[in-house]
Structures are given as C-alpha cells and as structure tokens.
Amino acid sequence: MILVARSSSLHGQEGKEADEALWVARAQDGDVDAFELIYRSYVGQIHALTRRMLVSRQDAEDVTQQVFVRAWQRLGSFRGEGPLGGWLRRIAFNLVADRHRIRQRAGGRTEGEGLDGIHQATAAASRVSDVAVDLERAVGRLPDGARQVLVLHDVEGLSHREIAELLGVSVGTSKTQLFRARRALKELLS
Prior knowledge:
This protein starts with a helix and ends with a helix. 81% of the residues lie in helices and 0% in strands. It has 9 helices and no strands. The protein folds into 2 domains: 1-109, Rna Polymerase Sigma Factor, Chain: A (Orthogonal Bundle); 128-190, Arc Repressor Mutant, subunit A. It has helices at residues 2-28, 32-53, 57-74, 84-105, 115-127, 130-141, 144-155, 160-167, 171-189.
C-alpha cells in the first residue's frame, strides 16, 4: 500500500482516482482491506454531510454507519461512471431522506432529540463559539427541504442542477428552497 499512497501524492487527483478504482475493484472481489481504505477515505466527509442534514448526532452516526454497510452490500453495482464520493453521498442522502420520512410518519421527533439533544448542544457550546452554535441550531430548525438544499448547495458545493437531480425536484424549486432557507436563517439569527 505504500506505493499506492506515493502514487497519489505524485499524481494528485489522477492518482487518487486510480487508487480508488483499484480499491473498488479489489473490494468488489471481496477484499475487506480494500473496502477499509474506501471507508477511511470517505467516513469523515459522509459523517459531516449526515451531521448537517440530521438534527440528532446519534441519527447522523447511525446513518453514516448504514451508508458504508449499504455501500459494501451494493459495491458490485458501482460501475465507476461517476466519482466514488458522489455515489456514497447519494447513498447517504437517500438514507437521510428515509429518516425524514420515518420521522414525519412518527409525528415529529426521533430518538436523540429532546433532553439528550439538549445535553449534546450544551456540550457543543462549551467547545465552539456561540456564533457557530447559533448557526447550527438555526440550520437545525429549518424545514427538511430547505435544510437539505442549503447544506447541499452552500456546504457541499452542489449546483442547483445536481441538487434537483438528487432530490427529484426542478431547478427552480432548488433555487426557491435555497432562497427561503437563507431568508429563514437571517431571521433566526437576527
């Protein structure tokens, strides 16, 4: 593996893509060590995405774990037509959307919210600035659709076209949701 790591550093993005293609091919053949390399490369990004999309830290951790379980189960269907990170983000987003649907059917709150969520927020406030905590809380208070578009556009850097494809909405809806999310954040933070 040392040669693979050196290849990446010498060839930049092309080397990383070649490494990933090798890891995917080996993992598709059942190589758990190769899949661990994929996991280590992406777990931070996927967790950050799920944490921003879900209010509950526990839900974000659960969904992150589910993403990699599902990726392992379905790695044979990954054809390499797009980036591996995009494929993993798509799995994450679908699982997040499933969580939101389950929460709506259950009438609102999920496990992890309530007192546990308050304790987590209090602990987080002691570690980061008040502004960051206020922003995080405000984003958490946004409606699901607005929060999803805001995170995907402003944090993950996806275009409105990509968001529209991912969410199954029109580009105009994506733009409207982003406008509403930003306006709501401004009101929540003022």
